[in-house]
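Lab notebook, bench 4. The sequencing result for the construct came back, and we need a structural model before the next group meeting so we can plan mutations. Quick request posted to the team channel:

Model the 3D structure of this chain.
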Amino acid sequence: MKIRKHYLTLRHAFPQLQEESPLETTLEELAAQLDCTHRNMVLLLKRMQQEQWLTWQPKKGRGNRSTLIFHMRKEQLLLEEAKQLVAKQDLQSALELLQSTEHSSHLREQFQDWLSGQFGFRSELQGDRRSDVLRFPLTQTIHALDPAAIHYAGESHLVNQLFDGLVRMDSKGEHIVPHLAHAWEVDETRTVWTFYLRKGVRFHHGREMSASDVKYALERLQRLAPRGLYSWAYAGIKEIVCPNETTVVIRLVERNELFLGFLSTNRAAIVPEDVCEAAGGWMGTNPVGTGPFRLAGHEHGIWILEAFPAYFQGRGFLDRVEVWTLPENEHLSDSTQKQPFQVMHNVRISDMDAQRWQQVRQSGMTTKFMTVNEKKEGPLRNPRIRQALSLALDRAYLLEQLSGDVIEEANSFFPNLATEVQEEPPAPLPYPSPSTTFEQLLHSAGYQGETLTLATIPQYEQDALLLQNMYALSGIKLQIMLIPAEQFNGELRMSADLVLFAIMVDEHRELRLYDMYKSMQQHAAPEVQRLLENSLQLLRDEIDPIRRKTLLEQLESQLKQRYSLLFLYRKHLKTAYHPSIRGISFDSLGWVRFRDIWFT
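Done. Here's the predicted structure in token form:
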């Protein structure tokens, strides 16, 4: 409301004045503060007095000054203004309003407590029809919802609700099952894959999906994202042929047993050719897919998804989902009493609070690690210095600083790996005598105090700073280079000595590891490049998934033995949900699939 803004402007004009203290002033002075006319100032004061925000005692006569008394605290009015902005679904402006350093942290806490109560499930009556709505917060910015352009977990989750692929992976990551394609076959050379599409599948804009859309979607990836996630999979497509509207034949350059798994990822989601071409090739933040929800709109950080009635697997139970994106530095209250979300992702809840929830499910994890740039001239070409970096890794320190019941030390991408292939490690550092410092050990290994550069993305800056502090305690100098995620696979990181990153360990683990090792080839020593190339070739040729897992375990062990791969920690994905929810199921990132949710 403009009247609130006018009051706040007046209140800011007299910062030293306390509430209930009289101020002698004139209409002219007040009108100058609001840059309005004498007449409008009279009307505004009358309105503010009706709201009981202030008292205005005018005095007649030239030279006489009137009396103004403020009653309403500016913090209280700011809170009401922020609530009004939220009611208009302008969360971004509400947060910006309270971001000023002059406003107390207590005010922001009050707002966050109130905001928490706005999330969860609600049933709204619109005319004679009732709508079931789920609203939840996401502490992440949504930059794009185009399958070819997504980089972050929140974006990926929403893309899963908006799009479908030819096939999908079951939640355990054990079997690939039909989806937009009801069946498929592969020839004896295992380079020609034929998919048979379901009939009657419609895009959100109403047109029926056809084989030409599948061809367009995969060729579009090759054209628009030649270095994107899983690019090694779609770069191997030699030709796509559509014998008819429901048949797609994909010919690969060479055999790749990971290709079908790639088609189960949201990167391979099917997009409508007409919509994409009309938008210049990219869909950006205006996606059109075949998924169970369609994007109804997005403004001020709020993304509204509506159930797609014509979804080929049946309409979802929810009518609408509202995703309210909050800045990453905004944290809502930890107490479930103040945070009545029906679904909470990546949460920490106490044992007492956990009793109020139906289930806490761990369904995947992220693993943080560092790799060494052995192409760069510098101290890390020396295996003994790489070993020193490994010895100086204090994972207990990292966990203590990060804190959290979902974080644990990691030394593998396979948490349950019982045995590892052991190879001859580099010559060990001299065993320290009681008087030997770690700095002396480093010096004996050949480290001369050089500053090492650690490259990572802005989202991992906190981890990088912790590593910088940790290594400084051991006499190792580290400087941090932050590279945007969309540029991270480029040439810039090749100037760094170390690369800090993370991968999601879920049902697509072998794809993610293949992608990571493919990227690692760019900054590996020649002998490591050969090791990686040979191992990746074996993976592409191996039809047995159990054998592929063994190959990945062996490769990991070899890289660890030469200290080219340094593990930090893993973070489990935890999802808690309220007993009122029914139909809970999880997708590849451990997020709830909205289509299956219903409430009692």
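DSSP finds 19 helices and 23 strands in the chain.
Will bring this to the meeting.
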